[in-house]
Design brief:
By secondary structure, the chain is α/β, with parallel strands linked by helices. The protein is 39% helix and 21% strand. It has one domain. This is Peroxide stress protein YaaA.
């Protein structure tokens, strides 16, 4: 099973640690593309900071993010599961998983990254700012770069198992799984007074809790139907949709976060 997570926009900047070593990251087939994106981003941020800020979609009061990118080659690194922050990652809380669950996290989780394509929780990375919809001078849209490179690596990582795709729409555009893969997507619906709707906070927090529970439980479902059964066994209300181009959608219905 491969569980694909979105990155977080906010990141915790490591205070100490070795500098970035692209060759040490998992998914080695992405090294060349990673270097291309990294070089384009650093080159942009070594120029006019105001231009870089506009290109990256950050405000003129956030030039510290430009400086962050400018120093990527020499900045300290930490495990990706310590760098990515936010609601989903707070709920997942890899640091407090059991030893067995942390091993499963290393083997089964991957984060979609605008800068690195895919990273494992144990990969050491610096903090950076690069949105999934960014376009870099001389390189073009980062989504287009990763569409050319992610397929082979991600497909190999899924193998004969199940892909659980928890990416947001922006990062889903980096790679569309082929019809030969078994894919489950998860949507979280908040039910209140008989009405259901998608609420970002509920969505992210519940996805983090779902991943945490699956890792602790050790379940390794190989089909969307088996994943739905596993989630029901763990206490969630799950409805299974019809197969579509993006796989089988599972609706997890919650009444409180």
């Amino acid at each position: 099973m491969l569980i694909l997570l979105p990155p977080s926009e906010g990141k915790a900047a490591p205070r100490r640690g070795k500098p970035l070593d692209l060759a040490a990251l998992d998914f080695p087939g992405l090294t060349t593309a990673r270097q291309q994106v990294l070089t384009a981003l650093v080159d942009l941020c070594e120029g006019d900071p105001e231009v870089a800020a506009r290109t990256l979609g950050v405000g003129s009061t956030q030039l510290d993010l430009v400086a962050l990118n400018r120093a990527l080659a020499t900045s300290p690194t930490a495990r990706a599961d310590q760098v990515y922050t936010g609601v989903l990652y707070d709920a997942l809380d890899v640091a407090t998983l059991s030893t067995a669950a942390r091993r499963r996290a290393t083997a089964r989780l991957a984060v979609t990254s605008s800068l690195f394509g895919l990273v494992r929780p144990s990969d050491r990375i610096p903090a950076y700012r690069l949105s999934g919809d960014a376009t870099l001078p001389g390189l073009g849209p980062v989504a287009g770069v990763w569409r050319q490179h992610l397929g082979e690596e991600a497909t190999a990582a899924v193998g004969r198992g199940l892909l659980v795709d928890l990416r947001s729409g922006m990062y889903g555009a980096f790679w569309r799984p082929g019809p030969d893969l078994r894919v489950a997507t998860v949507r979280v619906l908040h039910e209140h007074q008989g009405q259901r709707k998608v609420v970002s906070h509920f969505n992210k927090a519940t996805k983090g809790r779902i991943v945490r529970a699956l890792l602790e439980d050790g379940a390794d479902p190989r089909t969307p139907a088996r994943l739905a059964e596993a989630l029901r066994d763990l206490g969630w209300t799950v409805e299974v949709g019809a197969p579509g181009k993006a796989g089988v959608q599972l609706d997890v219905v919650v009444s409180e976060v």
